Amino acid sequence: MTDDLPNRLREVLDGRWASLRQSARDKLDDRFVTVPGETGPQARERISRLVRQIPAEVGVATGFPAEFGGAGDPGGSMVATEMLAQVDLSLMVKAGVQWGLFGGAVFSLGTRRHHEAWLPRIISGDVLGCFAMTETGHGSDVQRLRTTAVYDPGTESFDLHTPYEAARKDYIGNAARDGRMAVVFAQLIVGERRHGVHAFLVPIRDDAGAPAPGVTIGDAGAKAGLLGVDNGRISFDHVRVPRDMLLDRYGQVAPDGTYTSSIDNDTRRFFTMLGTLVRGRVSVGGSASAAAKSALTIAVRYGETRRQFTAPDSDQEIVLNDYLAHRRKLLTAVARSYAYTFAQEFLVRDLSDALAGGGEVEDRRQRELESRAAGLKAMQTQNATRTIQMCREACGGAGYLAENRLPGLKADTDVFTTFEGDNTVLLQLVGKGLLTGYRDAFGSLDGWGKAAFAAEQVREMVLERTAARTLITRLVDAVPKRGDASVGLTERGWHLSMFEDREKHLLEGAVRRLRRGAETKRDRPFDIFNDVQDHVLEAAQAHVHRIVLEAFTAGVEEATDPETKALLNKVCDLYALSTIEADKGWFLEHERLTPARAKAVTGAVNDLLTELRPRMAALVDGFGIPDAWLHAAILREEGDRQSSMM
Amino acid sequence: MTDDLPNRLREVLDGRWASLRQSARDKLDDRFVTVPGETGPQARERISRLVRQIPAEVGVATGFPAEFGGAGDPGGSMVATEMLAQVDLSLMVKAGVQWGLFGGAVFSLGTRRHHEAWLPRIISGDVLGCFAMTETGHGSDVQRLRTTAVYDPGTESFDLHTPYEAARKDYIGNAARDGRMAVVFAQLIVGERRHGVHAFLVPIRDDAGAPAPGVTIGDAGAKAGLLGVDNGRISFDHVRVPRDMLLDRYGQVAPDGTYTSSIDNDTRRFFTMLGTLVRGRVSVGGSASAAAKSALTIAVRYGETRRQFTAPDSDQEIVLNDYLAHRRKLLTAVARSYAYTFAQEFLVRDLSDALAGGGEVEDRRQRELESRAAGLKAMQTQNATRTIQMCREACGGAGYLAENRLPGLKADTDVFTTFEGDNTVLLQLVGKGLLTGYRDAFGSLDGWGKAAFAAEQVREMVLERTAARTLITRLVDAVPKRGDASVGLTERGWHLSMFEDREKHLLEGAVRRLRRGAETKRDRPFDIFNDVQDHVLEAAQAHVHRIVLEAFTAGVEEATDPETKALLNKVCDLYALSTIEADKGWFLEHERLTPARAKAVTGAVNDLLTELRPRMAALVDGFGIPDAWLHAAILREEGDRQSSMM
């Protein structure tokens, strides 16, 4: 039955956490849906209230161990965050700060006594907290942040201090209004020794809401969006923090000041600490895609009813989705949304499975997951920014009105490209991991001297497939290398080998250039990497494109119903071919496409756009977003208006 | 002296209206500068007050004839609007509605008696008014709007009426709060005859601000930006409009209802009426570029002081602008800003010169100017949206804070891509004009049946050069056709011929496909054009790229000082080469670039980015935006913070 096609699509997209997704749809009723056009104070008041009322079934705290009130399902908590993003992005960020970053840091960086003392109250929302890492002067290079925590054995406490204005904690969610506690990242100093960045659990307000002694809290003020999130600035004037408030899983300070850690190297230790917080990035990437799906649902549905201009042979006006240019924008974006949904699902599954082992994750595996989280966060947030912008424009003037939701989606998600890791920095991290085969992903987030050195040693790039390895190997092996004109344009094996080939070639080229630079630019070590920066970023993006296509390929296989599977295969064709088309400059330049075949790719994309035209509405319905959540006036009214017009 | 390089650049960029630009810089003091983080009501109150206080020297009304209080300088009024856009975009839109659209319609569509009765009070700001064209149901296809004006000879008045909800006037600036009058566009009906869309001058509020009898005014509500503009919705319930309130320059109704017009065809008459309003598009395009320049100035200056990550051989942190990827984004956008500045200057000059003739502008010339205005509006607003977004991201978290101005610039300009003509529709208009050689640019804005027919008759495309024709011909003739590898990558003649060749080939291809479609798709006339829509849009964009490069080439020639000229030539190289690089897929696909030369283009762009690195700050300083107008906290504070950090 074609009629329930949206439901069948939704089942495939919902994946492993389908029941949790359905709980969110059921439990997050009208009360939780975003309110366009609020003032800042109204939004903060509403979100502050709602964040404590999120029904447990939604699962924001499901990642914590059962003994403290969770369900030991970290994948579920990432999915829950993503669902909140379709209801209200301020609510998602506020919840993400509370249970993801703040609670997550106490859990991941703290030890048993911290867990017992704090997790129940954090999980219940009785204690709202902040994640105070970023400073005004250091956002991307957090390893160099300037807040200090000097240990005093006499009082068995740390002296937490902000030495410069640029060292104040900045952009901190939950700080300006609601936070009572904060996990504060600071340089640990004992005597003459600096031990690098550590995390401290610090009360920042008393029960009445007044700042704690020595703590100064400012308001980050008006922002582009996320009006419901109270971002603030925190400074410390020699605040005394008791010794047991150091979150000491990775580094301990004895009463006499003796420092111990299972990880000797300060940098490596810090990046291990950061690594445990990878879930934040996963949640942001997933939330960005969730918001893009809201925007696409609004724009596609509007495009099904909005008419403009008559056909040459008719008095009937044409619906927007019938225009090729309109379809090209919207349908290719719908295909990308499907692709990212599968990529996100497999990332959450893999991360969840790795964590489920209970013990430590093998180093190389941990780094691959971190890299994938970073890459998918960057590409999903970039895609969301572009897609939501495009959807707002596709709705014309209506897309500029707050009542139609698109301005809020755009403004709220806008910060995602630069928070939880700036996208450029994250893609560099991905590139670096690839260049070194994850052998030395530690070191400063840039630290390109080392990467150049490691690249010198690389002999051959081996790409590791990330999903459905057997299937993908079979598909790729089934097409001739450097697929020629005889290979069908919709052969998945050809798409996969095009994506793999591009990534491999870009990486090998970068290695070659880094090697050459390492020889010729010994006196300008910064330039060795910097001159190749655009090349490395391109390689990182090609890598993400490849793992996304692998995930889409694997995801299609999970559809059991033939009609659904056939449709998903077409959507995957559109994703693969429109991605190749968008980068045809590279493929032509490197003679992976002949001019004739490049033109044929454009023709094939247009054919798919025509073929999928009747399925446009079903494809967005398949995202499974409840009507109440979409909350756009144009969807409620357009039908009536049209009927009175025709 | 290199020290005053910014001043010398500014002199060239300021162009013919340099003194007017300087007046705006001098007269628009702190009072007028935008206030980030205001609520909607605060912004409306402030802008409503300020719009009546704009000093005469700024020139918003300078386009009207001297006898009514202007200076007969329409170019000056467009430049004045553009300058306002750097101070406050709501103020620019509010002024644009009042003196550009409302006043402009009374002047262009009205006759002597309207001018004498109303222009002095409009120019002084005593009567604030609206331009009520767009309806909820018809924005792009305004020819089909539904408001009716039925003439009644008995009362010698029109019955102005909104027959459906979808026919209400929507998004109308000045309507929700301040407007007393409106120019209302409606279908004129006399007896059984419909005469197409005409404009009527209608009081919508009394002196106390209450809606006039039969007029219902609503508020468009919260918007993404432009909070200071009171956009509203107006409906008419059989409102009686006296006969002499028809703006009757192009169509007259005698007391007995006899209709006369110098233009027989209703469609042609309507498009002539629209054509007189082309200045609105010119102002929006210029304002978009002006706002992009504000954003670039903020991002480049911040990138000169903001440091992040240390170099491998140093403890000194690296300024953002030293990173290749950062420079690639910002400097190529600076080059585009220079390019669009010259293109806008030449458009305003040509339009101004055409209008200065006093009489009617020759048809073909009029259509070329309309097309250029449409194309440059589309490309400048698209570029502004992307550039401001990029600048906000280039400033990281700081770029998300209202105090740093970028969120406001983004949100305020966002509507430009879809108002005063949706960009897709405008580019179609450009494409259509090119395909028909401007022979039949009338007809419905799409009306593609006719365009396909006209295209059938096209034998050879002849491109008309728009600036410095002799110089450009000489440059193009100096390089071999289909420039081969022996031609230097920075030969302007090669760039010009690459741009021309692309446009010509795209147009010829579109003609060929339309002709073939006209034969094979006789039963599906809509598809004849629709199947080629993406191709036509691409041709239109290539056309705009070409006229922009021509303008840049001509603009560089106007620099008299050798150092300035040499620098502008480099910036022009960067514009040309980065534009070719961005579309290298096309050039390779059509064998205008070999793979080796395509790679060389990328190398040349990177070389230019390095070469221009020391001039980055001077290039944005050359935009000549007063510090007070930039109004971004990061520019005021970053210096202090850094000095305390280092």
TrEMBL record, chains A, B:
Domain (Acyl-CoA oxidase C-terminal) ranges: 496-640
UniProt-recorded Gene Ontology molecular function terms: acyl-CoA oxidase activity; FAD binding; fatty acid binding
Signal sequence region: none
Pfam families assigned to the protein according to its UniProt record, in alphabetical order: ACOX, ACOX_C_alpha1, Acyl-CoA_dh_M, Acyl-CoA_dh_N
Keywords, comma-separated and alphabetical: FAD, Fatty acid metabolism, Flavoprotein, Lipid metabolism, Oxidoreductase, Peroxisome
Domain Acyl-CoA oxidase C-alpha1: 275-435
Enzyme class label: oxidoreductase
Domain Acyl-CoA oxidase/dehydrogenase middle: 130-239
Domain Acyl-CoA dehydrogenase/oxidase N-terminal, chain residue ranges per copy: 20-126
Record-linked InterPro entries: ACOX_C_alpha1 (IPR055060), Acyl-CoA_Oxase/DH_mid-dom (IPR006091), Acyl-CoA_Oxase/DH_mid-dom_sf (IPR046373), Acyl-CoA_oxidase (IPR012258), Acyl-CoA_oxidase_C (IPR002655), AcylCo_DH-like_C (IPR036250), AcylCoA_DH/ox_N (IPR013786), AcylCoA_DH/ox_N_sf (IPR037069)
Subcellular location: Peroxisome
Any one biological process term the GO annotation gives: fatty acid beta-oxidation using acyl-CoA oxidase
Enzyme Commission code: 1.3.3.6
Cofactor: FAD
Protein family according to the UniProt entry: Belongs to the acyl-CoA oxidase family.
Protein name (record): acyl-CoA oxidase
Highest classification ranks of the organism: Bacteria, Bacillati, Actinomycetota, Actinomycetes, Micromonosporales
